[in-house]
Design a protein that fits this description.
single chain, alpha/beta, 7-stranded mixed beta sheet, 6-stranded mixed beta sheet, 14 helices
C-alpha cells in the first residue's frame, strides 16, 4: 500500500497508519493519566508508539514499564481506583497472564480501557491469528467491542472511554481487533484533532464523580464478599452491562453527530433491508464478506451481513431483531467452543433461535491459526446458507478451510 500522505490528506487529518498505531493514537487523544503495558506479538507496536509519544512529550502520562502483563493490569487497576484515566494493551498469552487481574478489575468496577490484539491462545503454542483469546475471556465481566478496520480501531477506543467512564456504566472495556490482519494493516485513518477528542470526552466531566481511593480515607475494595454484599454487587454489575447496550448505541449517535461517522452501535447491518439470507461475523473478515455480498447483489441474490461490534454484553435483542424472519443465517466464528459442536457465537445465537420467527442457523468455522477468510470461502458460506434457505440438506457445522473435518468418517 502507498503510504504517501498528500496535502489534501494533511488538511483533512487523514494519515496512513497501522491498526496498532491507530490504537496508540486514540489512547494519546484520550489523555490517560497512567499507561502500563508489556510487549507481545502482535500488540507490541501499540506500546512502542505510546513510548515514542511519551518520550517526545506528545503524551503527558505516567508510563510504567512493567515486568509482565499481570503487573500491567494491576497497575492500571490501582490507578483507576485512585481516580485516574488509564490504558493498557495485550494479546493472547499476555491476556492469559493477566487473567486474575482482569477478573479483579471487573469486580472492582474500575473503568479501565484496553485493546486486545486477537491471537490464538494455549494449548497449541502458535503465533497466529484467531479470536480464541477473546472467547476465552468473554465471561470475565468486561464489555467487549470488536473493530473491523483501522479507522474503527481508533474510533472504538475513544468510544470505549465514553462508555467505561459513564456514571451509569462504570465498567472496564476491551477493544478487540484481529492480529496480523488488522494490527499490521496500513489504511487511511481520519485522525481527530486533540480539541475534537477533548470535546467528545468532555461529557464525562459534567457527570457525578465516582468514588475513588484517597490517602487517609477508608474505602473497601475487594471486601464485598462478606454476607450479602457480593450478591448485590454481582447483580448491579450485570444490570450495568445490560444498560451499556443502549448507552453504546447513544454514544455511536453522538460520535456520528460530531465526526460524521456512524458504525451502527451494537451491530452494523450491511444490505440487510430486503435480504433473504445473511452472514453473521465480526472483525476484519467483514470487509471481505461485504465485497462478496456486493458481487452477489449484482447477480440479483439478496444477501446481507450482520456485523457484531459489541460482543459483551451479547446484543441479543438487536440480534433477534436483525435476524427476525430471514430464511437462514450463517454464523462465522474465528474461534472454537471446546466441548460443543459449532462455533461459540453460533452457539450463543442458538439460544435465541426460537425468537427469530423461523430463521434457521448454520455454523461456519474459519480464519483460525492464520487461515485466511478468502472471497472463495465466503462464497461457499453464502451458497450453503442459501441451500439451507431452499430446504436442502446441509451440515450444521462446516470447517471451511479444513474440509476433512466435514467428513464424518474422518472424525
Amino acid at each position: 500500500m502507498n503510504t504517501t500522505t498528500t496535502d489534501q490528506d494533511k488538511a483533512t487529518g487523514i494519515k496512513v497508519v497501522t491498526g496498532n498505531a491507530a490504537a496508540a493514537i486514540a489512547a494519546k487523544l484520550a489523555r490517560p493519566d497512567v499507561v502500563a503495558a508489556y510487549p507481545i506479538t502482535p500488540q507490541t507496536e501499540v506500546i512502542e508508539k505510546i513510548s515514542q509519544f511519551h518520550a517526545s512529550g506528545e503524551m503527558d502520562c505516567e508510563l510504567i514499564t512493567v515486568e509482565g502483563e499481570n503487573s500491567a493490569m494491576n497497575s492500571v487497576m490501582a490507578a483507576s481506583l485512585a481516580g485516574g484515566r488509564v490504558f493498557t494493551a495485550s494479546s493472547s498469552w499476555g491476556l492469559v497472564f493477566m487473567y486474575d487481574a482482569v477478573l479483579a478489575v471487573a469486580g472492582a468496577r474500575a473503568p479501565v480501557v484496553m485493546v486486545n490484539v486477537n491471537r490464538e491462545t494455549p494449548g497449541i503454542i502458535a503465533v497466529s491469528s484467531g479470536q480464541q483469546d477473546m472467547i476465552s475471556t468473554r465471561d470475565s465481566g468486561w464489555i467487549f467491542l470488536v473493530a473491523e478496520t483501522c479507522q474503527e480501531v481508533l474510533d472504538l477506543v475513544l468510544q470505549a472511554y465514553r462508555l467505561a467512564e459513564d456514571h451509569d456504566i462504570q465498567l472496564p472495556v476491551m477493544v478487540h481487533y484481529d492480529g496480523f490482519y488488522l494490527s499490521y494493516l496500513s489504511e487511511g485513518v481520519q485522525i481527530p484533532s486533540q480539541e475534537e477528542a477533548d470535546k467528545f470526552l468532555s461529557v464525562l466531566e459534567t457527570q457525578p464523580k465516582r468514588t475513588v481511593l484517597h490517602p487517609g480515607e477508608k474505602l473497601g475494595v475487594g471486601s464485598h464478599g462478606i454476607l450479602g454484599g457480593y450478591l448485590e454487587l454481582r447483580h448491579k454489575h450485570l444490570a450495568a452491562m445490560e444498560r451499556s447496550k443502549a448507552k453504546f448505541d447513544s454514544i455511536d449517535r453522538e460520535f456520528a453527530e460530531q465526526f460524521g461517522r456512524s458504525w451502527g452501535g451494537q451491530l452494523e447491518l450491511y444490505r440487510t433491508e430486503d435480504a433473504d439470507v445473511v452472514l453473521v461475523g465480526s472483525g476484519s473478515m467483514c470487509g471481505t464478506i461485504k465485497t462478496v455480498i456486493d458481487e452477489y447483489r449484482d447477480s440479483g441474490i439478496k444477501v446481507g451481513l450482520v456485523k457484531i461490534r459489541m460482543y459483551r454484553p451479547f446484543p441479543s435483542e438487536a440480534m433477534v431483531e436483525a435476524l427476525q424472519g430471514l430464511k437462514a443465517a450463517g454464523v462465522v466464528d474465528r474461534s472454537l467452543a471446546f466441548g460443543f459442536k459449532g462455533g461459540p457465537i453460533y452457539l450463543e445465537l442458538k439460544a435465541f433461535e426460537t425468537r427469530m420467527n423461523g430463521t434457521r442457523l448454520l455454523s461456519f468455522i474459519d480464519g483460525i491459526a492464520n487461515t485466511d477468510i478468502t472471497k472463495t470461502n465466503v462464497a461457499q458460506m453464502i451458497d450453503q446458507t442459501i441451500d439451507l434457505a431452499e430446504g436442502k440438506q446441509v451440515p450444521e457445522v462446516t470447517w471451511v478451510s479444513y474440509p476433512q473435518a466435514n467428513d464424518p468418517e474422518d472424525a
